[in-house]
Amino acid sequence: MNQKKKESLFLGSLFLAVQCLCMVKGDVHFYDFVLTEENFTRLCSTETMLAVNGSIPGPVIRVHKGDTMYVNVHNQGYYGVTIHWHGVKQPRNPWSDGTNYITQCPIEPGSNFTYEVIFSTEEGTLWWHAHSDWTRVGVHGAIVILPAIGTTYPFPKPDDEEIIILGSLYSGNLKSSVDEALHSGIDLPHSVAYTINGEPGDLCPCSKETTYRWMVEYGKTYLVRLVNAAVSADLFFAVAQHNLTVVGTDAHYTKPISTSYILISPGQTMDILLTTNQSLGHYYIAARQFWSHEVGVAKFDLVNATMILQYKGNYTIPSSPTFPSNLPLYKDLRSAITFTKHFKSLANKDYPVYVPLNITTRMFITLSMGGIIYHNLTSTLEAMAASANNISWSNPTTDVLLAYYRNISGVYSTDFPDQPPSYFNFTGDDFPNTLTELGTKVKVLNYNEAVEMVFQGTNLVQGAGFHPMHLHGHSFYVVGSGPGIYDNVTDPKSFNLVDPVEVNTFAVPKQGWLAIRFVANNPGVWFWHCHMDRHMTWGMSSVFIVKNGDTTETSIRKPPPQLPLCEASFRLRLENIDGLDQGKENEPIFS
């Protein structure tokens, strides 16, 4: 890139920041994210990964409730990237949601883009991550949102805090492996280990010296900010001989949950109180996968990721830390379901809930695995697909937001169905011959529409498992869930409309259903999808377009200057499946 273009991009970003300062109510923060390919040695092997500012996890963002920040992302990697601010509602500002081909096109190598991130009602822990291909395996970090200045937590102030980020490790060039899998229709890569704050822990080979250690003092209460940044895994989490108290999730406070273990889905965050009241010593903090898919499958990631909680003081160092005996086993569905049923909002005068009661839009969404056949002039490719109401999402040639804002036709259609094409025994073993349709279909909502969505898990292609569904631009209330097939007559009678938990990500149970409600009060274009990246990549996702309200304050803001340009498209790449160019392994095959 020439110097004049660089200066133009910088001045455009600076103009955006200055222009918006007058609208900011809280403090303003500025960050620089520099994306580069770095060498990391894990499990006795050195791999090259894209990282922010040279580290995995990346920088921690710290703000107060109601603040605004500007993040200038410089892409010095080999392929296009976007950054998503997971759980940040971004009122009226979908332009900085950072979703590949939904709200923007990728930040191409050698260029930069400044995100304006507007914090509003969020308070607690969120996170940021790449939202393009599987780049988030290394491009992610925590967001700490402290109470607004002059306020405090709804629980006694902790003595200190610790950020714990759970992640994934893959062998080889992950970007190239994902591209080749999509290109040829084979299975997507599986992780070889999980990590805690970037390290797999000393139960893994070549990892003893780099195991993450957390030094604590006896008799203190710590606030643990837990993030599941794993690409495609629900994870059990526990601390040996220490109880945990969950006090928040997805930057919303909850009624305290006293527990000996945690289940956290990819995309979720939790705020947890831990009191160091055990004998001075070393204790493992461990995480392992909860495998909710085919029970008979044994070939999944069995690695136990560990870090060490280490008490300060004088005592005999143990030969080995104590391992948490209360960490559930890999296929413990009962423990998984039991934990997720505990979540409730505070629902008091300081932290009220606003559950919509008069629903104006109802959607029943089946989540399925299946196959799909791609055709072009020279080739036919049969591949795995995932779908919502039998529609498998296909990224368009330009981002949906710009097409909507500029009224560009032919980019998407507005006929995403409110119901599946047919009804049958969704959780059984016998199914009708249903076809998965590849499409860019969105659902249009009026401003302030009161929406109820019921997600129904299915057993198609033995794909039954947890599906952590994530909604951009909004939070939602989990009003009900249960096993089996949803009954729209009897099941609503058990809905919790008093103190349901408010979240941005929550799992649909294995062979069960999940009911959520929200008000579409944020104009813009907002992605919703399964946060298992395997399923999202295969198409288990769609888009809401929330129309403007009647005033400027209820309408989408104008786009920022220097939006990244679209230089490639999913559909164009589908037309070129005659073989990988081995000399260009860092170039994306699919967006």
UniProtKB/TrEMBL annotation:
EC number(s) of the enzyme?
Answer: 1.10.3.2
Q: Which InterPro entries match?
A: Cu-oxidase-like_N (IPR011707), Cu-oxidase_2nd (IPR001117), Cu-oxidase_C (IPR011706), Cu-oxidase_fam (IPR045087), Cu_oxidase_CS (IPR033138), Cu_oxidase_Cu_BS (IPR002355), Cupredoxin (IPR008972), CuRO_1_LCC (IPR034288)
Which Gene Ontology molecular-function terms are recorded?
copper ion binding; hydroquinone:oxygen oxidoreductase activity
Cellular location(s): Secreted, Extracellular space, Apoplast
Which key words tag this protein in UniProt?
Apoplast, Copper, Glycoprotein, Lignin degradation, Metal-binding, Oxidoreductase, Repeat, Secreted, Signal
- What is one cellular component GO term in this UniProt entry? apoplast
From its record, what is one biological process in GO terms?
lignin catabolic process
Which superkingdom, per the lineage?
A: Eukaryota
Q: Which residues form the Plastocyanin-like domain?
A: 36-147, 162-314, 415-549
Q: What cofactors does this protein use? A: Cu cation
Reaction equations catalysed? 4 hydroquinone + O2 = 4 benzosemiquinone + 2 H2O
Give the residue range of the signal peptide: 1-26
The note describing how and how many cofactors are bound reads:
Binds 4 Cu cations per monomer.
| Enzyme class name | oxidoreductase
Question: Is Metal-binding a UniProt keyword of this protein?
Answer: yes
Biological role stated in the UniProt entry: Lignin degradation and detoxification of lignin-derived products.
Q: Which family does it belong to?
A: Belongs to the multicopper oxidase family.
- Put simply, this protein is called Laccase
State the species of origin: Quercus rubra (Northern red oak)
